Amino acid sequence: MTTKRKALPIMLALSMLVTAGAGCGNNSSASTTTAAATEAKADDAAAPADTAAPAPSASDNASGDKKNITVWAPEEVVELTQTKLNDWLAGQADWNGKYAITVSAMGEGDAATQMLTDVEAGADVFGFAQDQLARLVAAGALSKPGGTFLDNVKNNNDAGSVGAVTLNGDVYAYPETSDNGYFLYYDKSVVTDPSTLEGIIEQCGAAGKNFYMDIQSGWYDVAFFFGTGAECYYEYDTEGNVTGAVCDYSGEKGLAAMKAMVNMAKSKGKGYEQSPDGAASLFNPEGGTAGALVSGTWDYATVKDFLGDNFGAAKMPTFTVDGQTYQMSGFGGFKLVGVKPQTDSEKLTFCHIVADYITSEEMQMARFEAKGWGPSNLNAQKSDAVQANEALAALAEQLAFCPGQGQYPNAYWDLTKAFGTDINGGMYADADDAALTAALKDLEDSIKAAK
To answer: pLDDT tens digit string along 50-59?
Structure first.
């Protein structure tokens, strides 16, 4: 049920395109001075629609020369992307004689670094990881979609991915995937009700099995902290340096989260165990001890093969502390596509049309079918093929409760690993609220001091 988008007539597209704009920001606030300076640079990056170049005609290319648009994509989808773009461009009468598109290999994890090293030399359209959005915005490396392009972003993609491309209320990029995060795998012969953490642990214990989750990690323990409404994120400058951190773990929300982790750790040997590397293999019916596991799409094939008809996947469960119930959260991981600001307003419009097509339902389904990438497009998510993938269906439901992952320094991961290791080792099993709050205050201060 895919649909193919047609390129907008150039004058209409130019009239709807919001020119390149960028403001310095993070999850909570922006620097007014930097935002104004970046916005001024952005205003210079694209001509107003009423002074834009006219639509291309055959005479424009009498010499046979074409303007080249460069696109960066991960190596595993370069060939697919190039082939699909070539076929698509061949059907665009307004643009085919004017532009050529070259797709080059560049992983999402490296694209932002390359762009920030030299924006001018970077690709015109590029994929990147959502944790790099703030840095790219602050550096003026992204042109904001507007008009129909903006409508497509907001109306055609799930809420988590739209949030991932949004900074301080403005959309700066196009969602490409919605497929990195964690959820629950479970053995239906062991866990008949996967809705609550306490119930899962009880059911696993009764069957002589275990619920496996990694709490010795800052990636997984936010399932509790973010679930209670606590916050923790960092602010960066355009060079990638930490300029500040927001963390409220020492308050009531953080206390509730820690108490939930301490309670879970008390269940070691009685239905809960720390998740080891390769935990998916613990679903092996030949001596496996897993009744349920928190993991991601990377373990889908292994777990499904082991469990067969007993395979189950669901969003993360709820947990209850002091009579209050919370939905477990986590980090949401998304791949995004950005457009570099251009001095040529016609080229800028075409770059947005290319980005819009690369992230369309048609392209997202093509990547799902070829590589198993989870779509952010709502229609693609509803397709029979995607719905048949139980892991992606469970993750899509879970990501509704997860903020996009920002950028975190190495020290954060070390600190949270040590903190979780202490909890898992039983250090706080008998601690009162005052002692737990003191431990949280130490963690919070260390997180804020991390660089």
So the answer is: 323 334 443 3
